[in-house]
Specification:
The protein is built from nine helices and ten strands. With 251 residues, the protein is an alpha/beta fold. The strands form two sheets. The protein has a six-stranded mixed beta sheet with strand order 6-7-8-3-9-10, sandwiched between helices. The longest helix is centred in the C-terminal third of the chain and has 18 residues. The radius of gyration is 18 Å and the shape is globular.
């Protein structure tokens, strides 16, 4: 369970990225976060794994005060939280399976981590994760030979190799064409339903948010202005979130 209580984020330049955020997200939820660029969507999810620190209020994950974590305890905490970015963040000149196995590096002895030496169990787990996202046949292909959608699936398989309880996805389909974007969203949905992994996804494409998420959070200028079921997001709700700005992906 993720709980924000009166949480805020003020940057050193004085900009208020988040304001008085109060949220409770239960294990297994699929939550889409929507809003204009700069509204605070990325800031919100990046506070959960301490990529950004809140500067006001409280944030707990499974009862743990996130801001109290340091050093080894913070690293261990982050192992439970997968992070997926728009840019994939793959090592493009090596194979798909080796990219997935980098998920194991933080837990490896120094020698194995330094030289990229993996055992049979780790290789089998990497293959299983690739199978879960439908690209097992690409395991020994170089990552730079894959399409954008396939590369994002590799990133998702790498995250699954961590055995995460939560996946944070920061605009994971923004660089993909509409058909490929839906295929990747299908992967997220299947993983959420079959593995009970909590998924929080920042997404510009409102129609995809409404189609795949069970819950939508709307952010405007750092504040939560909507939090409710996806099927209750009306045009009036969207107008309140976007305040006359462009609503991406809405037909």
């Amino acid at each position: 369970m993720i709980v924000f209580k009166n949480a805020g984020k003020k940057y050193p330049n004085g900009f208020q990225g988040l304001k008085n955020v109060n949220l409770t997200i239960d294990q297994g939820e699929f939550v889409a976060i929507i809003g204009l660029s700069g509204a605070g969507k990325s800031t919100l999810i990046r506070t959960i794994n301490r990529m950004h620190d809140i500067t006001e209020g409280e944030l707990t994950v499974d009862g743990v005060d996130v801001m109290s974590l340091q050093g080894a305890s913070l690293r261990s905490f982050r192992r439970k939280i997968g992070m997926i970015f728009q840019s994939f963040n793959l090592i493009t000149r090596t194979t798909v399976i080796k990219n997935v196995m980098t998920a194991f590096v933080p837990d490896l002895p120094v020698l194995r981590a330094t030289f990229g030496i993996y055992n049979k169990q780790e290789k089998m787990k990497a293959l299983e994760c690739l199978d879960k996202v439908g690209i097992l046949d690409k395991a020994f292909v170089r990552a730079d030979q894959l399409s954008g959608g396939q590369q994002q699936r590799v990133a998702l398989a790498r995250t699954l190799a961590q055995d995460p309880e939560i996946i944070l996805a920061d605009e994971p389909v923004a660089a993909l064409d509409p058909i490929t974007a839906k295929q990747v969203m299908d992967d997220f949905k299947r993983i959420n339903e079959k593995m009970n992994i909590t998924i929080l996804i920042n997404i510009h494409h409102v129609d995809l948010a409404l189609q795949y998420a069970s819950r939508v959070i709307g952010i405007r200028a750092g504040e939560i202005v909507y939090d409710g079921p996806a099927d209750q997001v009306t045009d009036e709700v969207l107008q309140s979130i976007y305040q006359g700005g462009e609503v991406h992906g809405r037909v």
